[in-house]
Specification:
286 residues; Beta Polymerase, domain 2; 10 helices; 6 strands; HEPN domain-containing protein; NT_sf; HEPN_dom; Type_VII_TA_antitoxin
């Protein structure tokens, strides 16, 4: 795998060194690999106007952190602490997305030719290497295999998202707004995972729709305005949907208004349409 990041501006190189230093100071890891747009050299830092609204977007750093569970236990509190420390670093201007994988399943994914890992192996840049783990070259799927896998993933996850949207509508019509908010969250989560699986072959164990949104936008920037983050009301409503995964079920004080849910449902219908369009275009490209 490559190790050179000289194609990146000096400020980006400094940020990546800071991220590596922060992670390795907290956890004994095997590899840290930069992948995605910053590894390929096609990252985006842009703004554009649509109607009266200005949208801004900048690519995140995509980082694979490889661990050895024999040496380092994978605990949610530990990695939550790592993510918090990285995200709160005052010198970082670019958001890092961390994917944590144990080295043994990772080797298996490479041997089986999962195309997310194949692309990562080909395009990734090693930022840190303990010298204890060597990744085996992956088996590459041919175009036919990739297309079949993407089509299968699309059909399963897109239909699953539709089912949750139907459940949202039923709960909404009954006036069960907290339950409706949960079902709508699950629909969005599955629509986003549909895109990620079709484009990358990878589905994170992730329920945070803000993080999923960031990942999806790197696949297709047309998703940026689906949930606008321009006004306070935009942000408040998306935050309501984000919190619904936990709070709609376990917090007695959780409230979702009819107006908020109607607005969010319209955005989800737009999301559904774009997911179908984007994924079908991607599948045809294989």
């Amino acid at each position: 795998m490559k190790t050179d990041i000289s194609h990146l501006p000096d400020n980006k190189q400094r940020e990546l060194r800071l991220i590596v230093e922060t992670i390795t100071a907290l956890v004994d890891v095997e590899l840290i690999v930069l992948f995605g747009s910053y590894a390929r050299g096609n990252w985006v830092e842009d703004s554009y106007v649509e109607g009266h609204i200005t949208y801004e977007y900048r690519s995140d750093y995509d980082l694979l952190v490889v661990t050895d569970l024999v040496r380092t236990k994978k605990s949610k509190p530990l990695w939550s602490k790592v993510e918090q420390r990285v995200h709160e670093h005052p010198a970082l201007k670019t958001w890092p997305n961390l994917i944590v994988e144990d080295c043994r399943p990772l080797q298996k994914h490479l041997q089986e030719g999962h195309y997310f890992y194949t692309d990562l192996y080909k395009e990734g840049i090693v930022l840190y290497d303990s010298g204890r783990v060597e990744l085996e070259p992956p088996r590459e799927l041919d175009a036919k295999e990739r297309k079949e896998q993407a089509q299968e993933d699309f059909e399963f996850w897109f239909n699953s998202a539709d089912e949750f949207f139907i459940d949202f509508q039923n709960a909404f019509e009954r006036g069960s707004y907290a339950k409706a908010a949960f079902e709508l969250h699950q629909s969005v989560e599955r629509f986003y995972n549909t895109v990620l699986l079709v484009y990358t072959g990878y589905k994170a164990k992730q329920h945070d729709i803000e993080k999923l949104r960031k990942q999806v936008v790197t696949c297709d920037p047309r998703f940026i305005p689906v949930f606008p983050h321009v006004t306070k009301e935009d942000k408040k409503r998306f935050e309501l949907l984000k919190k619904a995964y936990i709070e709609s079920r376990y917090n007695k004080k959780f409230k979702a208004s009819r107006e908020d849910l109607e607005w969010l449902a319209q955005r989800v219908e737009h999301l559904r349409s774009l997911v179908e369009q984007s994924c079908r275009e991607r599948i045809q490209s294989f």
